[in-house]
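User: Some background: our group keeps a shared notebook of sequences we're curious about, and every so often someone picks one and asks for a predicted structure to add to the entry. Today it's my turn. The entry only has the sequence so far, pasted here. Could you supply the structure so I can complete it?
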Amino acid sequence: MPHIIIKLVSGRSDQVKHQIAEAVAQAIITSANTKETSVSVSIEDIEPDDWTEKVYKPDIIGKPETLVKKPGYNPL
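Assistant: Of course. Here's the predicted structure to add to the notebook entry:
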């Protein structure tokens, strides 16, 4: 039962968030061969000034064993 947490820089509309959630859910349903009813998606808004401390350091640098796709930036 996949649960996907998406962290985005704040500023996107609810409509865009729903489009993103649906696209990601469909990708998971297809690639993980799971049911639509098994997938949930949440989106967390992160202020740009907080990105390094709330996302980059704890989730990207701090969890290299879970990072499957690395970003092409380094805000440090």
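Suggested note for the entry: DSSP finds two helices and two strands in the chain. The chain has one domain: 3-61.
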